[in-house]
Amino acid sequence: MFLPNNQPGSFRLVYDFGQSIGTRGETGIRVVVGDDGRIWTAFPVKP
Amino acid sequence: MIKFRSSNVHADRPHLTHPGDVFVGVTGRLEIDADGRSVYVEEEFPVVELAADLWRWIAVGLEAGRDFEFDSMSTPEPGWVWIRRTDSGWRVGSLHQERPDLVVRSGAEVRAAVESFIDSVKAAAIENLETDVTQIIEQRSLGN
Lengths: 47, 144
Description:
- The structure holds two protein chains of two kinds.
- By secondary structure, chain A is an all-beta fold.
- Chain A is built from no helices and four strands.
- In chain A, a hairpin with a 5-residue loop joins β1 (2-4) and β2.
- By secondary structure, chain B is of the alpha+beta class.
- Chain B has one domain.
- Chain B is built from four helices and six strands.
- Chain B has helices at residues 19-25, 47-64, 107-129, 134-137; strands at 2-11, 26-34, 37-45, 68-69, 82-85, 90-93.
- The longest helix of chain B is centred in the C-terminal third of the chain and has 23 residues, at 107-129.
- The chains are: A mainly beta, B alpha+beta.
- The interface between A and B is medium-sized, with 18 and 17 residues.
């Protein structure tokens, strides 16, 4: 799922793996990507 | 008086050439102080990212009466810092606040606190990191 980011020139991508991948039961990952394709940050989330 | 204080602004990476490096890699101590009482303290807070979000909010959102919710790219939960409208002004707080500030603040007081915080972050970035973050903070997104 593509979402806007809080900073211009970037966006958020959230993918739900459907199974636990994080230590707190997170099943998804959020990746923040710049418009140039560079990854800014990524961490597990509960989508 | 409400105050957003930043200190110990530093970077966790050697180069700050890309906006993502600055937003994610530059952190510092953030304290929200309400009339001399600490409401919220975080030692490793993304202060440049907060300054950028607040800059856009005071440019548009404050006058429009829109709430501010800091939706950081460093945490899954929004609201690390919030400024919410009430019938008679604004309240300031955090999702992780140590104690609530129950005082309703005027728009002028909130604006002054935000502008002072932004200026302090810019100054600390120059002094501590030899990096001018003005352009990174003052980016307007579509719709602003």
